Amino acid sequence: MVCMALSHRINQTRSDQCSQLLAEKFYIYWGLALRSLGEHVLDHTRRGDTVIAGII
Known about the structure:
By secondary structure, the protein is mainly alpha-helical. It has 3 helices and no strands.
């Protein structure tokens, strides 16, 4: 939910240079978090896609 709120806010202020830098960092860290979650789930339950889709 927090990621969705931040993403919405960043997209609303995309014309600002500072917002563009923030958006780049946000998407990098968001991707890292999803990748880490996916690896963790896959290692433990082998149902990663279903769980990640449910979380998102």
